[in-house]
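Minutes, project huddle
Topic: does the predicted pose make sense with copper (II) ion bound?
PN asked that the exact inputs be recorded in the minutes so nobody has to dig through chat later. Recorded below.
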Amino acid sequence: MSRRLLWLLVGGCACLAAACGTDASAAQTRRVLVDYVHDEVASSFLAYFPSDVTVRPGDTVLFQQEWTGEPHSVTMGTMVDEMMSVVGPLIEEYGDSPEEPPEDVLATYEEAMAPLPEMLDFGASFLQVNQNAGQPCYLDSGAPPEDGDTPCDDAQQEQPPFDGRQSYYNSGFIPYEGPQGNEFTVQLADDIAPGIYSYYCNLHGPFQSGTITVVDPDEPIPSQDEVARQARAEIEEQAAPLLAAFEAAPREGTAEVFGMTAEPPLAGWTSEEQMVSQTFLNEFIPRDIEVRVGEPVTWTFVGGHTVSFGVPEYFAQVVVEDDGTVVFSEDASRPVNSPPLPEGSLGPPEPEGSEAPEEAEGNEGSEEAQEPPGPPEPVLVDAGEWDGEQFISSGLAGGILYRLRFTKPGTYPYACLIHPQMVGTVEVR
Ligand SMILES: [Cu+2]
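Predicted holo structure (tokens), as shared on screen:
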């Protein structure tokens, strides 16, 4: 075989393997992961992997969500480009610090965010979905409705190709379709101008954001394999503080977390490094515990979770009803056969005398969620005795102590209704 022919063959193979990145005639699809299910530690990654993907006009970006229980959106458009042009540099400068940024920085941040509706209304007595952000909406110009009860109209919910000029281009809540089934597809218009387009999650805020880089039609782009490798590298970097926090979590004795004294068993855990890494640690620590009949078990809640026994079939915490209305499942968030939760027990622990927490799971002004609060007083919620059978759930809470006594011997699996990978067992002897 001639050297030239061999070279051609090798070249041809390489081209096939890389999906022939330079063939401008064939439209390509590139996959971006939304969130990530880690195989060692139950967790949520508030990020898109890779954070930037390069494509050409006419290509497709497939957003594929791994379900950790956290609802997400992909929200883009010129309104988002403008917001990110202000907020992005602030996150770059202040985002890695657990310290609160200066007042004027927070004001600038909030002003930039103001025109964009958020998916969840954390001010409501229980979590409520804003339909103007939770439902899909594609606008050539103008802003989505300001009223959280008003979704964009039916015509505005029909998804066109993304041309980079639309003012608002929002997936809304990416519906739950099984562990890896949640998808949002963005077909890029043939006439989209080369440039960098920003998107973010309108539930978790601009700390969870990414970009789509569009290059000229005749420029080469990285293959899907390369995109996947980049995603993997970013996941590993983000996972490092998460794994370290899990490793360092107390299995016995007591430990301080943001000034709160926590004693295992724990429902959730975190560290400063991990919080700024935009991950949640969704573990019961230790996962398996043993008690005697009648002996109380008291969980310390760190972050927003539930302790739930006798759980019926899995249901997602956010669902889309037949008419398109997006709702937060009250069964996931409310106490079931369990006492009411103390005021302001939702979300991360808050300092004494602060305003009632208006956010769970690090939303709006993620800076606030990432700020280590002063020493709070965890409130004890005593749910009394549990007979080993009926559905009982603490409700979504953070910064509480939750106590149960078991009346019958047995091995009881339990779970967090918000985070499906967050499970444990109590063995009662
Ligand atoms: Cu949880």
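Observations noted during the meeting:
- The domain at 20-235 is CATH 2.60.40.420 (Immunoglobulin-like).
- The longest strand covers residues 205-214.
No decisions taken; revisit at the next huddle.
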